[in-house]
Amino acid sequence: MFFYKVDSFFQEIVNRNQFKNIRFIIVQHCQKDLPFFLRALKNIGHIDALILKPSNKDRDIESYVKQYYSVYDLPKKILFQPCFTRTFLGSICQKNSSYIIFDIGGYFANALPVIVDDKSLPIIGIVEDTENGHQKYYQVLANNPQINIPIGSVARCRLKETEDYYVGLSIVTAVDMILRVEASTCINSLRTGVLGLGKVGKSITQNLTQRNVDTISYDLKALKRIQAKGTNLPVTLNQSKLLQSSQLLFSATGNKALSKKQFELLPNEAFVASCTSADDEMLLADLELISVEKQISKHIFSFTFSETKKKLYLLNRGNAVNFCNNQNIVIPYLFMVQAALIVLAKKIANSYKTTAEKFVILSECEEEEIATIWERYFSY
Fold first, then answer.
1. 0.85 cut: is pTM over it?
2. Domain annotation for the chain: domains and CATH numbers
3. Is the dihedral of CA 51, 56, 60, 61 positive or negative?
4. H helices within 144-292, ranges in order?
5. What is residue 165's three-state secondary structure?
6. How confident is the model over 189-223, as pLDDT tens digits?
């Protein structure tokens, strides 16, 4: 019944947003929501390449999608090499076709100037899912005003806010499960810090305080600290104090917040949980240089400092912890954001030849229409 409901939801979105002669290159997490999204896109275009993010793959889903799609295992650091990316796209893209890239995390941001300069690559636009990727594309556009293909982003739309709240909830739930099952402790017994007060970081802080966890939060930006304080969240002005007191640290910046200095400030036997991929959240190489790594359970990796013998425990080896737990509480909201990606892609496909906008977003009416359709299928 659930499968039918999801496919019906996407079919209604697709029926309202038809494409003509568009082909897709897709970057996505390999999780349970993926087949539904791919089936929806297959109904409006052709999927020429599916790039699976390397961490936290659901192996059953991976086996399934490899039967039906051209799957590529390409880490972000390879696609950050412009020459490789140009060659890769050149080997995939068919002549006299138009392509839209669905990105998640700015995989193609670094190569964007090269993609635009190569007139043989028929890329007409890119649609980005995340705040991290949004910032990367924004920076590239700011530094390269000659870029003339539109970048669509759902990262700051209101539909995404709801998903981010439930991502934060799923992160807290996953960490508590890992600690209970694999470390014989729980979040309520640990002094907890949250680094980063974006949408996910605020959600984590809210959910921790609702569970009566001893929590403090911090953000580099004063405005975000003030906004959090205004909603009665516990905030400190001192990042070092937060790190030194955190027996459990949630790092939710997406901006390499943890390096050698921060790791050294954490107390002995502190747990660290990341809310995105390790390469975006921390300089893991800094920790590897000063410590010895050992996997002590399925999701807990210890790093023992060579000189001081202090230990830190990285959950899921610094990668996003929410994928370690059942994602059912998030999945329906993922579908809503994926519908937004489809609508945004259609908007780009219909206007890329005439629009002067570099960043394309959904209008309030478009968001409201998606929300209305979503409510009919996934009512409370």
1. yes
2. 2-159+329-377 (3.40.50.1480), 164-324 (3.40.50.720)
3. negative
4. 158-182, 199-210, 222-230, 239-245, 260-265, 278-281, 284-290
5. helix
6. 999 999 999 999 999 999 999 999 999 999 999 99
